[in-house]
Amino acid sequence: MTQTMTQVVDAFEKARKYNRADDAIAQGLYPYFKAIQKHGGGSVIVDGEEYVLTGSNDYLGLTQDPRIREASKNAIDQYGTTCTGSRFLTGTLEIHAVLEHELAEFMGKEAALVFGAGFLACATSVVALCARHDLVYFDRENHASLYDGARLSWAWDNLRRFKHNDAEDLERQLKADEGKPGGRLVYTEGVFSMSGHIGTVDEVATVAKKYGARVICDDAHASGVLGPRGEGAHVHFGIEDKVDVVVGTFSKSFASVGGFIAADREIVDYIKHTGRPFIFNAALPGPSVAAALEALRIMRSEPHHRENMWKNVNFMRSNLLNLGFDLLGSNSPIIPVMAGEEDTAIRFWRGLWDAKIFTTPSLPPAVPSGKAIIRTSYNGAHTQDQLEKALYAFEHVGKALQIIR
Ligand SMILES: Cc1ncc(COP(=O)(O)O)c(C=O)c1O
Predict the structure, then answer these.
(1) Could you tell me which of 206, 208, 234, 244 has the C-alpha nearest to residue 125?
(2) Whose CA is nearest to atom 15 of ligand 1?
(3) What residue spans of 80-192 are helical by DSSP H?
(4) How far is CA 272 from the centre of its chain?
(5) Is 221 a catalytic residue?
(6) Domain 66-301 has CATH 3.40.50.20
């Protein structure tokens, strides 16, 4: 009997052939993984040079606040550097409970749960809450963490995507599903991370409620930014009763890392005991919990950080618009500047980099083809000088590349 041998392909061949990044580095056109030597709020040091930073998510400019640094250092002394285990087992610290209590109160919810990352909080909100026959409705622009949560769960089988920020399209889809079995869950965001649009959470939630759907809002970029004290989209729109679950992250306005879910006690309890990405992940370490807690207390009591942020954001938005840039209708601290083709975006980034402005281009597949952007954001720690320097560079590079006249 003869045996035919099939040629086995090396599974690592794809990695060996991948040379896009190397090519870009060789041409000096690689904008990613820049190693920051020192952080200074509105600026950073890279290779010994100072750059104005317009790409961070530190919306309230609190990452260098001495009180937050101190709280984090003290937590190292008390709890050590890490928990080394799941919240379920040996990873729950007293300070997790304090943060959960204060966060729930701040968000106007019965309970909260702290996660090791915002990504995990978002993914778990889908994995735990979407059961086999439930119908799940996503704003098309929802973050990858929600989509990946859907892939890990039954939601993927019954996922509907409605047009971005379009409650009418959502209604059309909910109506078409009338009579079908299963629960309904609608996922949207308080502020969308690429377009910088504030979510139409009020309209979306009103439609959702009409069809008996539950509403989950990812406030990763809305916490600290929207609402009179930064509580998020549900308070900003006065629809606390229509947003059932608020999910978010500590890696932006909270000057830390980690994530959270805030909801009714029974929902939080259910997620806590069934959400696999939560259960099988080491707990958020004490120093990170302490930083988030201190940031929450500052956010609650010191409105000037948010006021400064909005002042800076409004200054940049109106000036960039006056220069003729297309900002995709952004109305939040995230201001995308349209570049167009990928190549133009990379050259735009390089010109800004040479002018000592640190920006982050977003290229396909993160954005649609031909719609590459320079994603900028502004915060309460930027000085007027830094903003003017950034504007000057945007104007000159934008003109040189004929993005503006
Ligand atoms: C909208 C949105 N949701 C969730 C996340 C995940 O948060 P983290 O990076 O803190 O894990 C991000 C992060 O960028 C985000 O932009």
Answers:
(1) 244
(2) 220
(3) 94-107, 118-129, 144-151, 167-176
(4) 22
(5) yes
(6) no
Give the pLDDT band (50/70/90) at residue 3: low
Q: Which residues have CB under 6 Å of ligand 1?
A: 117-119, 122, 143, 145, 189, 193, 218, 220-221, 249, 251, 259
Query: With 60 as the cut, is the pLDDT of residue 1 above it?
Result: no
d(CA 112, CA 107): 9
- What are the residues facing 338 on neighbouring strands? 373
pLDDT tens, 55-77? 899 999 999 999 999 999 999 99
Q: Is 330 an active-site residue?
A: no
Q: Is position 101 annotated as part of the catalytic site?
A: no
SS3 392: helix
Q: Which CATH superfamily is domain 35-63+303-400 in?
A: Aspartate Aminotransferase, domain 1 (3.90.1150.10)
Domain boundaries defined on the chain: 35-63+303-400, 66-301
Distance linking the first and last C-alpha atoms of the chain: 75
Helix axes 118-129, 144-151, angle to 10 degrees: 40
Closest ligand 1 atom number to CA of residue 192:
1
pTM for the model stands at 0.96
Pocket test for ligand 1, best of 59, 63, 114, 119 (most atoms within 8 A of CB): 119
Pairing of strands 372-377, 334-340: antiparallel
Confidence of residue 40 (pLDDT cuts 50, 70, 90): confident
Give, in order, the Cα–Cα distances in Å from 345 to each of 125, 204, 243, 363. 34, 33, 37, 8
* Nearest Cα residue to 144 out of 113, 120, 108: 120
**Active-site option among 125, 145, 153, 193:** 193
Minimal-distance CA residue to ligand 1 atom 7: 118
Rounded CA gap, 329 and 140, in Å?
17
Give the active site residue among 96, 143, 197, 221: 221
